[in-house]
Specification:
With about 600 residues, the chain is α+β, with helices and mostly antiparallel strands. Helices cover about 40% and strands about 15% of the residues. Strand 14 and strand 15 form a beta hairpin.
């Protein structure tokens, strides 16, 4: 078997034991890697109803058959577990040297079980696994922890670590790596913290198995240079993702004041041009020639790595328009190991709930200094408010009541990414049906529906586009595992990725094979959701209710007086279900599951929930 090592490393923190397990060629071909391996392992090994923050949960680090190979942007890994934030399968994609080192150590995936007796660092070097004390850095932020690891093992090792947010099990704590990489929005860092696992360090020295290593090296390294050359021509990295902020502001798609507004005249003060002007360093993932990590000095003088999502949600969404202050909030999130998107949405919800009388408090939009204090409280679960903030906006809204659930900006418990869909139906659908909750990673169709279709349309073409992008972004890139930016931002053809896959594995796959794998994985995540929530309905795939509220319509600008139409959205949702082969609840039909080879998984779910 080429392309895969054929091995998974299983580590039990409770017993301090580990085991090298093999998997079959059939398993590799059916699930490919990354998200595919993760969802299958968790589906098979987790009992429904377990506590995501209990020792029964398992942390998965999964790689794909091109992860770590010199080719465009392959320095990525998938981290997954049952989510403490949403209550079902959750994952994230993180740039890390672990992608290369774990594969060179001889493994395609890592399963971490149980709970340690004390704060622990896992050190993996080829066939060796050590359980080492991490008391010295327990209670410290991710930057101190990362430096401590580099001092002990050198800067070339692969690192995954958590900050105080993970240690205190804030439900949207992430896993961190390198200078500014983070992954696992639905609380993967909290799962590490619940296991008293401060960090994972990996060093591998073996050779990654490939069917044609010489051809793969020649093609991959050549393509890396080509992507870098294209990036220089397009100039994308000059502003990288922050360059989208003026566009979102112009088309009334920017989150402002907890998504109440869609534009702001001061938004230019935190846009991509200003970020680039303030740049002091640039960071990126391994095997990347279009590095996107624009780093500025924050208000306190720390280096803070910015992208569009954290700028928009910690800036305009909180009505903070001083770039250095936005940098400070971002730095704190990174150091504490909190997801910047969920943190921004949770803080903005809190301010909004105070404004609308759902709760008492002194936090107001625009108050950056108080926001810094609240982030500290959330990361450390300090006091009643800190505990509430650490649980995310949905749980806060359920405590506050008074209709506040309608403007908690989340889907299935995961906070909405930084695109205001008050009148962008296709992207609202993309958030509603995203596999793990309201993540932009899986389908971003705003430019498609604004530039290439009628914005007002709720037609089947938008459902088709969401599915197309899910297959590419949430499917192929998440199983190979690789970054989507060369394709999205610099037009690197999708046809290149089966070429890399085939040179690594010796197979002869096409993009259509990738799409079928993607459909299988999306159905599996749906089955995981249904097993945890047997009474699921189509309303679980609705975006936040405030987007349908006439009282929330803009009073001026390009979408003045316009909001999402609930009845038309429901029709659009049905288009999606029909094209996916799902029933009216949004669950794959038996015929769909059979066509995807998921008969056994369907039988498992049918014991606890009805399948049509």
């Amino acid at each position: 078997m080429y392309g895969w090592t054929g091995h998974i490393l299983r580590i039990n923190l409770t017993t301090k034991t580990f085991k090298n397990e093999s998997f079959s060629e059939d398993f590799a071909h059916k699930w490919v890697g990354g998200r595919g391996f993760a969802v299958k392992i968790l589906f098979d090994e987790l009992k429904p109803g377990i506590d995501p923050l209990g020792p029964e949960n398992k942390l998965i680090v999964a790689l794909g058959p091109i992860a770590g190979i010199p080719a465009p942007n392959t320095g990525k890994a998938v981290v997954a577990a049952k989510s403490p934030l949403t209550g079902f399968y959750g994952d994230g994609n993180i740039g890390t040297r672990v992608a290369e080192h774990l594969r060179k150590a001889g493994y395609d995936a890592l399963i971490v079980e149980g709970k340690a007796e004390r704060p622990t660092l896992l050190y993996i070097e080829d066939d060796k696994v050590e359980f080492l004390p991490a008391d010295e850095v327990w209670g410290q932020g991710t930057y101190v922890c990362n430096d401590w690891i580099y001092a002990k093992y050198g800067k070339g090792v692969g690192v995954l670590n958590i900050g105080q947010g993970g240690e205190n099990m804030a439900r949207y704590a992430v896993i961190r790596s390198l200078e500014g990489r983070a992954g696992g929005r639905p609380g993967m860092g909290a799962v590490m913290g619940s296991k008293l696992l401060k960090a994972i360090v990996v060093k591998g020295t073996k050779t990654i198995p490939q069917a044609d290593p010489a051809a793969m090296k020649a093609l991959g390294t050549g393509d890396l240079k080509k992507v870098g050359q294209i990036d220089k021509q397009t100039g994308w990295s000059i502003q990288s993702t922050t360059g989208v902020l003026p566009f979102c502001n112009e088309v009334a798609g920017l989150p402002v004041r907890n998504f109440r507004k869609t534009q702001h005249p001061l938004a230019w003060q935190v846009d991509g041009e200003r970020c680039n002007d303030a740049r002091v360093a640039t960071y990126g993932c391994p095997t990347c020639t279009m590095r996107c990590g624009i780093t500025i000095l924050d208000k306190e003088g720390h280096e803070s790595e910015l992208d569009y999502e954290n700028v928009a949600l910690l800036g305009p969404n909180l009505e903070i328009f001083e770039l250095a202050q936005v940098g400070s909030l971002n730095y704190l999130c990174d150091d504490y190991g909190l997801d910047t998107m969920s943190a921004g949405c949770t803080l903005s919800f809190y301010a909004d709930a105070i404004d609308h009388g759902a709760t008492d408090g002194d936090f107001r939009f625009g108050d950056a200094e108080q926001a810094k204090i609240l982030l500290r409280w959330a990361a450390h679960r300090e006091g009643k408010i800190g505990n509430l903030l650490a649980d995310g906006s949905r749980r806060m809204a359920r405590v506050f009541g008074h209709g506040s659930e309608d403007y908690a900006m989340q889907v299935k418990g995961l906070e909405v990414a930084a695109y205001n869909c008050k009148f962008i139906p296709g992207q609202a659908l993309a958030f509603g049906v995203a596999a793990i909750g309201a993540h932009h990673r899986e389908a971003w169709i705003i430019t498609f529906e604004i530039k290439h279709t009628t914005r007002e349309s709720y037609g089947p073409e938008k459902a088709a586009k969401v599915i197309e992008l899910q297959r590419i972004r949430g499917g192929m890139f998440e199983v190979l595992v690789s970054c989507r930016f060369p394709w999205i931002e610099n037009g690197w053809p999708l046809e290149n990725y089966p070429k890399y896959f085939n040179l690594a594995t010796g197979l002869n796959w096409t993009l259509d094979d990738m799409w079928k794998t993607a459909d299988r994985i999306y159905s599996m995540i749906k089955l995981h959701f249904l097993r945890e929530f047997p009474n699921a309905t189509r309303e679980d795939d609705y975006p936040p209710r405030v987007w349908f509220d006439p009282a929330n319509a803009d009073t001026e600008g390009p979408i003045a007086g316009k909001i999402l139409d609930l009845e038309k959205y429901d029709t659009l949702l049905q288009h999606y279900y029909d094209q996916r082969g799902y029933d009216r609840r949004g669950i794959p039909t038996k015929a769909t599951l059979q066509a995807l080879g998921l008969d056994a998984e369907a039988a498992s779910v049918s014991r606890v929930a009805r399948l049509d």
